[in-house]
Every structure is written in C-alpha cells, then in structure tokens.
Specification:
eight-stranded parallel beta barrel; globular; TIM Barrel; 10 helices; 255 residues; 8 strands; alpha/beta; 13% strand
C-alpha cells in the first residue's frame, strides 16, 4: 500500500469571522504557517474543523483555499464522513474536485461491520483514484471499525482517534496499512512502535512538540499533557480559545 505521508499532520481548525462566517483566507494562512513549522499533512473539515457545522460549499471553499496555500508536497486531506452513505459519497466527490489529495471518512453510525466494505467501496469510487483513510472515532460513529476488518477495506490506512493504547497496539501488530494516531496522548508510543504518523488537533497550537513526541521524545509528550487534556475536555472551541490567548487567531466557534 502507498503511504500517504509520514510524521505529524494537523487536524486544522476552521477560522471564522466575528459574525461566524468562514474565513477561508485566514484558515489557509494558518495551514501554510503550520506546514512551514513541520506539519507533513493538513486535514480540512475534520472533527476539529467543526465539519458538522459547515455547509458543503463552505467545505469546498476551505479545501480549495488550503490546497492553494500549502506546498505541493504536503497532502491536503478532506473529512468526508457523514450520517449516510450518499452524503459521504457526495462530500468525497466534491472534496476531490476542490483539490483534496485524499479523503478521511468515518462510516455512518451503527453501520453493520458486514457493510463496511460496501460503504468504503462507494467512498473510494467517489474519490476517483485518490487515497481514502478510514476514520475510527467511536463517539461520533459507533461502534467504529474493527481492526480485523481494516485489511479487507479499499483504504490505504486508518486514523484512530479512540485514544486506546490496546487498539493502537492491535493495529500496529496486525494491520499492514498505515496507522495514523489521532490522540495526542499516544504519540511517544505510536511513533517508536512504527506508526505511520499522527493527525492532531493540538498541532494547531503545538506543532513542534507534537512532532518531537511522535519521534519518541518522552519529555515533549509530557509537556503536551496540559494542552491535550484541555482540548480533550473542551474540544475545538477550547482549542480556539487557547490559540486566541497566544494572539493572532479569533476564538469564534460554531459549537
């Protein structure tokens, strides 16, 4: 399987104006800044990007702006998971047309594991040859994607945001595709054990420390604890407040 990227990527926040309109230009500038600070990929319209509160047009506007701002060697991923297959297929096709290099999709909640192949097959067809990552995020898409199903799906890898070290170990030991960790609590575990990379919310705020922790720096992992726990408790809205406190970024959220 082709690896989409290696190292740490950012699950990008969506920046809004004070009137709660998307600010695509500011979001794209943030993406370019983070790429310059070592981020190896950018995820647009993911959970951290408040995708559930974005219209389809806002999603494609953001994808196009970020793709234009980020160097060609940095893949731009688009979150395209949805509550039903048809919606996910439409979001995937629109994202690829807007310039996304890959799609990240969670299956509709309560999807029977026996139906995961058909779902990801439809998403892969909509991606038109671009890579697809499965998104395991059980609190949004329960029950999620069993590890023993991953190898049979038309995907190149998985983003695992469960935060479970047991599941991460299972993936790294038994799944041949790329495993990207989504929990910033597990970086110093995932990197040294051979994980392909990470896609992180806190990389909006701490890109360098996130990269160091994934490279096996236990001290950097510990230094991320406060940020990780605050964002885990407060989500994208809390992350934006923390970014605003350091200056230069609006704290407006739709959540």
């Amino acid at each position: 399987m082709t690896q989409l990227f290696s190292g740490v990527g950012v699950a990008l926040v969506t920046l809004f104006t004070e009137s709660s309109e998307i600010d695509a230009d500011a979001t794209a500038r943030l993406a370019a800044e983070l790429a310059g600070r070592g981020m190896r990929a950018v995820l647009v319209a993911g959970t951290t990007g408040e995708a559930a509160k974005l219209t389809p047009t806002e999603r494609t506007t953001l994808i196009a702006a970020v793709r234009a701002a980020v160097p060609a060697g940095i893949p731009v991923l688009a979150g395209t998971g949805a509550a039903d297959t048809d919606a996910s297929v439409a979001l995937t096709a629109d994202a690829i047309a807007a310039g996304a290099d890959a799609a990240l999709a969670f299956p509709p909640p309560l999807t029977d594991p026996a139906e995961l192949g058909a779902y990801f097959g439809a998403v892969a067809k909509a991606a038109d040859g671009r890579p697809v990552l499965a998104y395991h995020i059980p609190w949004i898409s329960s029950p999620g994607i069993p590890v023993d199903q991953l190898g049979s799906l038309p995907i190149i890898g998985v983003k695992d945001s469960s935060g479970s070290p047991d599941r991460l170990l299972d993936e790294l030991a038994h799944y041949a595709g790329s495993t990207y960790v989504g929990s910033s609590a597990l970086l110093a575990l995932a990197g040294p054990m051979g994980g392909a990379g990470a896609i992180l919310a806190i990389a909006n705020l701490e890109p360098e420390k996130s990269a160091a922790a994934f490279a096996g720096d236990g001290a950097a992992q510990l230094e991320l604890a406060g940020t990780h726990l605050a964002v885990r408790a407060g989500g994208p809205a809390r992350l934006k407040q923390m970014m605003a406190s350091r200056g230069g970024y609006p704290a407006t959220s739709r959540l």
